[in-house]
Amino acid sequence: MTARIAVLISGEGRNLQALIDACADGRIDGRIVVVLSNRAEAGGIARAQRAGIAVELLSHRDYASREAYDTALVSRLAAYRPDIVVLAGFMRILTPLFIGAYAGRMLNIHPSLLPRHPGLHTHEAVLAAGDAEHGATVHFVTDELDGGPRVIQGQFKVRADDTPQTLAARVMSEVELKIYPQAVAWMARGELALTAGGVELHGRILTAPVGMDAVEEAFR
Ligand code: GRF
């Protein structure tokens, strides 16, 4: 059964584009039924429109509290009956109200090797800490910010001449655009789930996130 996917964005939408492409060519057995942005200027909106996907704009500025915003978010998304909710650069701290509505069905991508460097400015933090490696992580969303159970992590060696800008570009092109469509594809096929025992991938409970070697040829 083709999965109904909602993608939430705030920015450029490069991850969104990778998901659009993977749905279009059948690598993800799913259909993006809505792209929701909290920012009118998000570049990803045009990407969704070009692909003929419904766009919902829900500005946080119109709501007095996080709870009020998340209540509106839940009801706006419900109309599209998503099976999977994908946070793709959605720059909002979510309340349990929204997270609870999609428990076990919501993924996020974070530009660091979690649990290292949760929060913002991860590329700067990697350089300041002198980390030898950097990358990105796909994880299930739980109430802990950037702390939900991890699914897949991709990494690379930091070079002596890397800057926050080069790291951001490498994280995106070398890691994010590969691991996120892969994780969503697994979920759409029913091969990835969050169970009481933890993250289950291909019928096995993960003791650690899988790495780039788990990425199928079609997603590399
Ligand atoms: C990505 O680096 C993602 O990890 C972070 O925000 C960025 C989104 O970029 N949460 P884009 O909107 O997918 O281009």
**CATH homologous superfamily?**
Formyl transferase, N-terminal domain
Estimate nothing, just give the exact number of structural domains: 1
CATH architecture: 3-Layer(aba) Sandwich
Globular, elongated, flat, extended or rod-shaped: what is the shape?
Answer: globular
Bound molecules: 5-O-phosphono-beta-D-ribofuranosylamine
Q: How many DSSP-defined strands?
A: 10
Q: pLDDT below 50 for ≥5 consecutive residues: which ranges? A: none
Give the SSE string.
EHEHEHEHEHEEHEEE
Secondary-structure-derived class: alpha/beta
Q: What distance lies between the first and last C-alpha atoms, to the nearest angstrom?
A: 25 Å
- Mean pLDDT over the full residue set: 97
Can you count the helices? 6
Instruction: Assign the CATH class.
Output: Alpha Beta
Spatial extent as radius of gyration:
17 Å
Sequence of strands across the biggest β-sheet = 3-2-1-4-5-6-7
Named CATH topology: Rossmann fold
**Biggest pleated-sheet summary:** 7 strands, mixed
Description:
It is a single chain. The protein has a single domain, classed as Rossmann fold (3-Layer(aba) Sandwich). The model has no long low-confidence stretch (mean pLDDT 97). It is an alpha/beta fold. The strands form two sheets. It has a seven-stranded mixed beta sheet with strand order 3-2-1-4-5-6-7, with helices on one face. It has six helices and ten strands, in the order βαβαβαβαβαββαβββ. It is 32% helix and 24% strand. The structure holds 5-O-phosphono-beta-D-ribofuranosylamine. 5-O-phosphono-beta-D-ribofuranosylamine (GRF) binds at residues 9, 11-15, 44, 88-89, 109-111, 136, 172, 176.
